[in-house]
TrEMBL record:
One Pfam family recorded for the sequence: Trypsin_2
UniProtKB keywords: Hydrolase, Protease, Signal
Organism listed in the record: Rhodosalinus halophilus
SUPFAM superfamilies linked to this entry: Trypsin-like serine proteases
GO molecular function, one term: serine-type endopeptidase activity
UniProt domain Peptidase S1: residue ranges: 1-208
PROSITE patterns in the record: TRYPSIN_DOM (PS50240), TRYPSIN_HIS (PS00134)
Protein's recorded name: Serine protease
């Protein structure tokens, strides 16, 4: 995807703990807020990871970036119960950064009610030094806010945005939760944005 606003706002969510290093993706949705998957920033039982282990790097591209910051707080979807018991539709989290980033955040909205073509963006584990994009990704199934899209989901893309093009710009309508990278039957499972997480964005950002 060549859109510079998307490339500047989508970034790597780097997770580094004791003897471990994990990669997810995320998108800046307010100057100091990153939307990602809850399973990226929690243990399997749903317990949040230490804040010092969470680092967002926006627009990472072969050593250059558009800004970065460490986590000051993590807010989970109220229904998230961890990968052991959690559901895709609640696999959503907001990372509040210690300081705002300079670029424009991406707009957010619920998914369109009709199955329109969508795009995915993020950092695949097989290509971690530059953003990957999948477009178009047709919707093949939907149960409530649980979206299934006909695009492959590689490791590392978890937490990346599902995008729809509005009248004048791309907007985030969901978050990649997982899927299959088998090119014979590619699938991405995603959590569409709903009222619970959309209400949290203005209330969580910008707090001390």
């Amino acid at each position: 995807m060549a859109d510079p606003a998307v490339r500047a706002a989508v970034g790597r969510v780097n997770l580094a703990g004791y003897r471990s290093r994990t990669l997810c993706s995320g998108a800046l949705v307010a100057p100091d807020l990153v939307l990602t998957a809850a399973h990226c920033v929690t243990a399997p039982d749903g317990t949040p990871l230490p804040l010092d282990d969470i680092h967002f790097v926006a627009g990472w591209d072969r050593g250059a970036h558009q800004g970065h910051g460490r986590a000051a707080a993590v807010t989970l979807h109220p229904d998230w119960a961890g990968t052991e018991r959690g559901e895709v539709v609640s696999d959503l989290a907001l990372i509040r950064l210690k300081a705002p980033l300079p670029q424009a955040p991406l707009a957010t909205a619920p998914p369109a009610p009709e199955p329109v073509p969508r795009a995915l963006a993020g950092y695949a584990a097989t290509r971690p030094h530059s953003a990957s994009a999948r477009h178009p990704c047709d919707e093949t199934a939907r149960v409530g806010r649980y979206l299934v899209l006909a695009c492959p989901a590689e490791g590392g893309l978890s937490g990346g945005p599902v995008l729809e093009h509005g009248p004048d710009r791309w907007r985030v309508v969901g978050v990649i939760a997982g899927g299959s990278s088998d090119m014979a039957t590619p699938q991405t499972h995603a959590a569409g944005l709903g009222r619970a997480i959309l209400r949290l964005i203005p209330s969580v950002g910008g707090r001390d």
